[in-house]
UniProtKB/TrEMBL annotation:
Assigned keywords, A-Z: Membrane, Mitochondrion, Mitochondrion inner membrane, Repeat, Transmembrane, Transmembrane helix, Transport
Lineage, highest ranks first: Eukaryota, Fungi, Dikarya, Basidiomycota, Agaricomycotina
Annotated source species: Lentinula aciculospora
UniProt cross-references to PANTHER family, sorted A to Z: MIR1-PHOSPHATE TRANSPORTER OF THE MITOCHONDRIAL CARRIER (MCF) FAMILY, SOLUTE CARRIER FAMILY 25 (MITOCHONDRIAL CARRIER PHOSPHATE CARRIER), MEMBER 3, LIKE-RELATED-RELATED
Name this protein carries in UniProt: Mitochondrial carrier domain-containing protein
PROSITE patterns for the chain: SOLCAR (PS50920)
Length: 314
């Protein structure tokens, strides 16, 4: 072991079903609140991605164009499926990350191994948790995108979901499952892994005395800054697949296998097209991720849940 690696007594927490229910509730609330609040930004971002009329616009000009043509209420299109979808997905993602990180640390067997392979543990925990969470999210995300992209498609969540299911069945509801995995897994990797390393970097440069006497405002600043950086990373890593997901759910692209459709759409869009709308999405994602981590920690604390397992290199 390197002399510069400082390790503390290795104790793997034994989370109870009650703990995991608290993790699920905290994750569900923080995600549905944050994503619901970001609905107007997401509406404009989606229009820029898939509506030819919005191609020349940036975020501000696109917002003005939308309000002028459809009224202010258009900014809340898709709020229902967004709130419900991310209630389920957020709970499964955050609780799942706690579970799989702990599981992979247990597989590592000892502290030195866990710290050495912490990047793989973060990546694996985020990816597996997101996979299962996306099974819950995909049908509601398909409904949201259809509501946002087709004016007058339905009046809300229930009618939109029912119409989509009756017209296309399960295959249509899950048409975006592969691209949503391609979007959400890189997103989760950026969100959790970058956040972990930002915290590690911040605390590694502090003395033990500083850590013990750190004010709540200082802790808040570290969490906020880490969340913003993690949000930028999540947006950049996941944006090409986010663009393709919007196209698939709008019904664009040739017939054939999902891989063929995604490949064809990607070639047609090119690099510039795949990253259309990245600016507003980075703003949105930085707000999402930072607020989620802040709310998640606060709700966990209020529920009396134990702290997350940390395997940072000191």
């Amino acid at each position: 072991m390197s002399d510069t690696t400082k390790l503390y007594p290795f104790v793997i927490p034994q989370f109870t079903p009650k703990d995991y229910s608290s993790f699920f509730l905290a994750g569900a609330l923080c995600c549905t609140i944050s994503h619901g609040a970001m609905t107007p930004i997401d509406v404009v971002k989606t229009r820029i991605q898939i509506d030819p009329r919005y191609k020349p616009f940036g975020f501000v000009s696109g917002t003005r164009y939308l309000i002028a043509n459809e009224g202010p209420s258009a900014l809340l299109t898709g709020f229902g499926p967004t709130a419900v979808g991310y209630l389920a997905q957020g709970g499964a993602k955050f609780a799942g990350y706690e579970y799989w990180k702990k599981t992979f640390v247990s597989i590592a067997g000892d502290q030195e191994t866990a710290v050495k392979y912490r990047t793989a543990i973060y990546l694996g925990g985020a990816s597996v948790a997101e996979f299962f969470a996306d099974i819950l999210l995909t049908p509601l995300e398909a409904t949201r995108i259809r509501l946002v992209s087709e004016r007058g498609y339905a009046t809300g969540l229930v009618s939109g979901f029912t119409r989509l299911a009756s017209e296309g069945g399960v295959s249509q509801l899950y048409a975006g499952f592969l691209p949503i995995l391609c979007k959400q897994i890189p997103y989760a990797i950026g969100q959790f892994t970058v956040n972990e390393f930002c915290h590690e970097l911040a605390f590694r440069n502090m003395s033990e005395e500083t850590k013990k006497t750190m004010s709540d405002m200082h802790k808040f600043g570290i969490s906020l800054g880490s969340g913003i950086i993690a949000g930028f990373a999540a947006a950049i890593l996941s944006h090409p697949a986010d663009t393709l997901l919007s196209q698939i759910n709008k019904g664009h692209g040739p017939s054939g296998s999902m891989v063929y459709r995604l490949t064809t759409l990607a070639k047609e869009a090119g690099v510039k097209g795949l990253f259309a709308g990245l600016g507003p999405r980075m703003i949105m994602t930085a707000g999402l991720v930072s607020s989620q981590f802040l709310m998640y920690d606060g709700i966990k604390h209020a529920l009396g849940a134990p702290p997350s397992l940390e395997i940072h290199k000191e």
